[in-house]
Amino acid sequence: MLKKISNIGDCGITCDFGDEVNKKTNREVIKLFNFVQESVKMQKIKGILNYTPSYNKLIINFDLGEINSEKIIDFIKYSDYSKVILPEKKKIVEIPICYEDEFALDIKRLEEKTKLSFKEIINEHLNTDFFVYMIGFVPGQPFLGDLNKNLYHDRLDTPRVKIKQGSVGIVEKFCTIYTFESPGGWNIIGRTPLNLFNINKKDTSMLSPGDTVKFTSITKKELLSFKND
Amino acid sequence: MINYFKVLRPGINSTFQDLGRFGLQHLGIAASGCMDKSLFVITNKLVENKISEGALEFAYQGPLLELVGETILATVSGKVNYNIINKKGEIKQGISNESFIVSNGDKIDILSTINSVYGYFSISGGFKLKETQGSVSTLVRAKIGPNNGDKLKIDEKIFFNKPNIDLKTKKFEFDFDNENTIRVMQGLQFDYFSKKSQEDFFSKEYQVTRLTDRMGMRLEGQKLENKTNKNISSEGITKGSIQIPGDGQPIILLSDHPTIGGYPKIANVITADYDKLVQKTPGSKLKFKLVDLGVAESAFTDYIKKINFF
Q1: What domains can you pick out in chain A, each with its CATH number?
Q2: Looking at residue B48, what DSSP letter applies?
């Protein structure tokens, strides 16, 4: 449930759904996000520039020349977004992943920590229906959950300076896919050849908050010959 | 006739920008856009473009460009040291915030910004730029925008639309606000910081460091002590947010900010003071002043009035 709305400077507000980071809270965030996005598309409200959902918050940025925080807060308060129906599984996206040694950089650490074999770790990962909590940090990068508890592991103590595009990493109950080469501290377990982000496509990001992701295992040969549309 | 500028020197960080690319932050794409909006608008007004027309933004040292094609009206805005060199090699010192006529073979040599960071170069009728998701702003980190999402490079050609033939030069009296006080509102995690640090933040000076670019501005000063939690659940970022990472030194997130982040935010720069902030060079000392929403909103009204005055 929406707990609190606060200002972020003079051209933003945050809608806070409480401190819990779980699917139930995030689904409430996404309901409001869908409602705001739809309201902007249908021109029911003017001046909203961006809406950014995260685990437990929705941040809305607006053009102070067109609207102010009081009007936006009223719009949210008096709207009936809770009636927005979110399908249980909005959209299911299959993502191919290669778990072969050269891509699974942190598998040894994970085996030691979880006391599971590489094969068991892979099976857990493949059998999880991942929920897309949010997209961001860099374009198209998804934050997925929840992993089974027995796979939970901390961040690397020293982040890697460079992680290759397409690398799949896990930390605690979350899984991410690096859409750009970047620094990062997640435990890398494999790589996907699929481009999740293409700025020139109508749908720039293959995933949206609220979608479901299933991983499917591929060989290195399949990874190398994979062709993106 | 094909009209273009040949890039003889690209400058340090020259990119095409407009007012920003909106509605995509939920997919990880920050709005980006011009850093100094008032200056950007003035640039377009000087050459009678619509205010949202894409212009070339440069930082510190700008480009050296040679015109190949028809005579046009151009302008360099900000506080900029630049020269116009004609075909014969005669050098004329350029005057900022004034439009001027450029002819085939002329070179524009943008040497440096003076006690400021950003300046703009624009021409009447605008450059020929391809829109990406409704904007010609460049986000270099994600390779989004014109010029393959990259900074200007040597030997490139910047094509432009058929120039407006009604050439009338214009001049604006414009100067930067040299005041070093930046007004802010309390951030979402203001309460995370000790009472002493909350006071320090508003009374001590913070110096702009060299680790500053379109993405963020790192400051150095009295360490701010977080008594609650050094990390928060990642949440959406707003331009102008001042976050305090584990080392206690502030980072102000600017136009090319990451879209989400997990550091607590002590304050947010008000919109009316953002342009002034981004023009502060490394070494500048800033002081933060706490204001409430009412003050921020009326400061915004004044800010818009000032832009519209030109």
Answers
A1: 4-83 (3.30.1360.40), 92-225 (2.40.100.10)
A2: T
